[in-house]
Predict the 3D structure of the following.
Amino acid sequence: MMRIRLPGFAPLMLALSVAVMGLLVVMPLGVVFVEAFSKGLPTYLATFQDPDAQSAIGLTLVVAAISVPLNAVFGLAAAWAIAKFEFRGKSALMALIDLPFSMSPVVSGLVWVLLFGAQGWFGPWLQDHDIKIIYTTTGIVLATVTVTLPFVARELIPLMQDQGSDEEAAAVTLGAGGFTIFRTITLPNVRWALLYGVLLCNARAMGEFGAVSVVSGKIRGLTNTLPLHIEALYNDYDFVGAFSAASLLACLGLVTLLLKTILEWRFSSELSVARRR
Amino acid sequence: MPADAEDQALEVRGLSKSFGRFPALNDVSFAAADKEFLALLGPSGSGKTTLLRVLAGLEQPDAGEVRFRGEDYLALPARRRRAGMVFQHYALFRHMTVAQNIAFGLKVRPRAERPSAAEIARRVGDLIALVQMGGLDKRYPAQLSGGQRQRVALARALAIEPRMLLLDEPFGALDAQVRRDLRRWLREMHDRAGVTTVFVTHDQEEALDLADRVAILKDGKLIQLGQPQALYDNPASAFVYEFLGPACRLPGVVEAGRLHVGDWTAAAPAGAPAGDVSVYFRPDEVEFGSAGIALQVRTTSARGPDLRIEGLADGESVELHVRAPALPSGVAAGQPARFVPTRFQLYPRAANA
């Protein structure tokens, strides 16, 4: 590609964006670690001895371990249907998949309370049958799945559309059955894009605050996820504890960024068309 | 080799297929003999690819019948038809090597019918040699040229020992020189494999050069089916005439067994339509002389082995070809000349208005 020399105005814009990035991204990230270690390593580590903290980390892992595979399966199914078949309501489905991106996460959480809460549509019925959804792990998973719904599908749809279905057609004529084709052709063709989507989905699932806070009830040691636990610690004026816990999420973010960059660098041609550079 | 009804391998009867309100196939019927090489020739949108996909089982027709050696082919799902298909854009499995691509059709067979791993490897090796891809078996499709990819695609289709080979514009994405090389090679492959082959193309030269018989499709209908030479000599309609090669057209009138074009007359062939006709002839099937159709020559130019003479005949612009090196005597830019088409076809003028 040809290099374009930057005239006088451009360096100014560059300096501005670097300054904004530093102020809004790098500095806060630094603050998290500085504050977390402000009372030394033993205090930092002690935060994670707290049973409530361990419960929050555990719950966060459980929620991610359930919601991410669910969304991977849903994303694959939706992308497969949209990219390889023609059907009525296709554009409506595509718009619906994007809805969680354009809606406040609080709303995504609230709908479940309205449906399954004690005063909700199905509340009395659920109570009669002794089923609890709101203020339980189930509710947190539902809210997390809703919020992270688009990540995998959005990553796969453009790639699958670009690849078309000629390879699948060829596999059929060669005698392969539906499941064999999916396992040996469709899935391997999108594996890196799938991993990319799963990675982003996981980062969001573990970090989600808004939707989860509505349905969790914030019971310490029971329904607090890591982000909710951080808020609780902060509200208790336990700043070292809050920042120590926050440093975990920050690390998750950095690892995600690193893996994402490696994927983009190594497998750019096998990711979505939009991500090629 | 058009054959008797007894040894027809492939029989297609009354095939129709619409996409929404667009009729892609309209009552198409034909038959192909065992080991025959049949070309489906037509412009884009003529339904030839749809027809091929119906044969492969990738599309279901709305009406009609397909039989292969008497068996109801439409009742078989695509994966059971053993129709080896080669796609225009190769459709090679991008994450598999050349060898893995070719082995795919054997590896996905049910366990009872699957050859042993050693047998699969042996057959893949044979096919790689057959398509002259030796030493490239570990390559991925992205590391191959277009011509190499298409040879792998053919080997992959041949690996399943197909009952029928279906080729969808297999050379469409290749450049002219590679196309010509692969054309002869494909014909050899077909003769050696001995499989009934249906070949889709929009290139009339390719179809006439390769096929035992050519079927011409237009707007989902089968217009004419015949051996290449018969087709070329006797196109059934103006469309077929124009489609099979460069054509010149002049208005004429047939009266009392005589054809009149301007002030030139000739005996009209038996069975010629009466009244207003379009006279079609090939631009190189002309003789210049003192008699014939009057031509006001505008320009002359050399184009490869041909000399081109462009001018007005009876008010119509025509371009005639003569072999180099010399122009016929008396033919020069800006001068009047006369020529006679040595062969011509007459079609009613209204039909092609």
